[in-house]
Amino acid sequence: MPDMFLFVEGPDDDRLFRRVLRSRFESLPDVDAVHIIPYAEQPVRTVTKLINSCIALGDPYLFFSDLDKYPCVTACRDHALETYESLSEDRVRIVSLEIESWYAATMADSEIVDCCPVRDGTANHITKEDFNRLCGRRNVKPLVHKITLAAAFDIQRARRLNTSLDYVLRKDNL
Prior knowledge:
Elements: E1 4-8, H1 11-26, E2 34-38, H2 44-57, E3 61-66, H3 73-83, E4 92-95, H4 99-104, H5 109-115, H6 128-137, H7 142-151, H8 155-161, H9 163-171
Parallel strand pairs: 1-2, 1-3, 3-4
Helix pairs in contact: 1-7, 8-9
């Protein structure tokens, strides 16, 4: 069976994937092992070579990118496709808005209300800055709060409160 490679942006993404999502990918029937690769600090050429290796070996891969500043998912995806030449469109997954919104989707309702700039009952609009401000008001370090949330991560609640997480889990049969 092939190995699967998950390209994630940075250490916060890496932490959530390792603690919460990796086991879901490992449970896929055609996957032997899952490797998580933070790519944001790597040269584009290095990441492109890794993607090319996955393709050459027939190993499945997914490439996760934060929506961040892009006006829509299509613009974000297109930027990733332009940056990493061999990246396949069907392998790109967009995290909306940033990975902090996935962490936040499992917070208590009062924390989400305190943190979210858009009052729609979801964590979809929470950015890293929103998350960090909430932590500052609660006198807890963001990293500590992320580790605590990941340790008690309620995947069903998180799916209900973050549409991009739910989309990824449905799209990849997780």
